[in-house]
Amino acid sequence: MSEVDNLFANPFSKVNDFTFDHAVARVFPDMIKRSVPGYPTIIESIGVIARQYAQPDTLIYDLGCSLGAATQSMRRHLPQQGNRILAVDNAEAMVERCREYLSAQDAMLEEPIAAEVICADITELTLQPCSLVVLNFTLQFVPPEQRLALLRQIRQALLPGGALILSEKLTFTDSQTQNSLEALHYGFKRANGYSELEIAQKRTAIENVMRPDPLEVHQQRLLDAGFSHSHLWFQCLNFCSMIAHA
After folding, report:
1. 136: annotated binding-site residue?
2. Which domains occur in the chain, in start order?
3. pLDDT level of residue 1 (50, 70, 90 thresholds)
4. 39 annotated ligand binder
5. Any known ligand binding at 83?
6. What are phi and psi of 45, to 5 degrees?
7. What is the pLDDT of residue 131?
8. pLDDT (tens digit per residue) in 145-158
9. What is the average pLDDT value for the chain, to the nearest integer?
10. pLDDT at position 172 over 80
């Protein structure tokens, strides 16, 4: 069961860099729902999008799967057509809990789509041919100098007609837009019960770990990686999701 996120509720003498450890894994569903505007909509829509792009008898990747919310959504929405989902994360604590969640989902679905969870660094993974790849708030945690190479490998692995779903936090080159949407995001967190201390300490913890890009950078990088076209399908404040076509 998920617990309430109060990891940053008490003052720290030194705020360490954010890590996806067991403490985070316990509260992650609550944390991300209260921190990312539109997250439930994104997750449910990933299943809907998967139904359009997942080709029968092909592999699907959920890269940086965390607790497997996107994988669970795809398993709810996709018909049984011989697909297999490979969910990958480099945090052992997240992988362990993800496996528990998917095992529980197995008991709830009549014909669950095969899903495997592995602990690995997605930048070192050799991708097999696939029809759909999900990077749901993952690329922003990949070192910037490795992002293009990862996207190129994804593009090369995608079958004709395949697609990438890419969800990310955005920054904005226009300072007025950046300041406005950042302030609204903090307001969103306050409305969900986070204190000023929690917001400030979480910001300090994650600023050296998560490095978001502007939308224009994402779009150009996707073109440079070989994708034929990409478009925004969702944005709420400074969070978005895109579809990139092979």
Report:
1. yes
2. 22-245 (3.40.50.150)
3. low
4. yes
5. no
6. -70, -30
7. 98
8. 999 999 999 999 99
9. 97
10. yes
What is the token pair recorded at 192?
A: 């969900």
> How far is 246 from 232, CA to CA, in rounded Å?
15
What the block records as the tokens of 119 is: 């602990």
d(CA 245, CA 200): 38
Instruction: Give the percent of the chain with pLDDT over 90.
Output: 98
**pLDDT value of position 21:** 96
90 is in an annotated binding site: yes
Instruction: Flag whether pLDDT at 86 surpasses 70.
Output: yes
- CA–CA–CA angle 128, 132, 133 (5° rounding): 75
Phi, psi at 245, each rounded to 5°: -100, 140
DSSP bridge pairs for 171: 214
Which sign, positive or negative, has the C-alpha torsion 232, 233, 234, 240? Answer: negative
User: Which tokens hold the place of 202?
Assistant: 């979480």
- Annotated binding-site residue? 240: no
Say if residues 191 and 162 touch (Cβ distance below 8 Å): no
**How far, in Å, are 11, 44, 101, 114, 240 from residue 70 at the CA level?**
33, 8, 12, 14, 15
Identify whether the C-beta of residue 7 lies closer than 8 Å to the C-beta of residue 27. Answer: yes
Q: Which residue in the block uniquely carries the two structure tokens 């890009």? A: 213
Percent of the chain's residues with pLDDT above 70: 99
Residue 187 marked ligand-binding: no
Strand 229-236 with 239-245, pairing: antiparallel
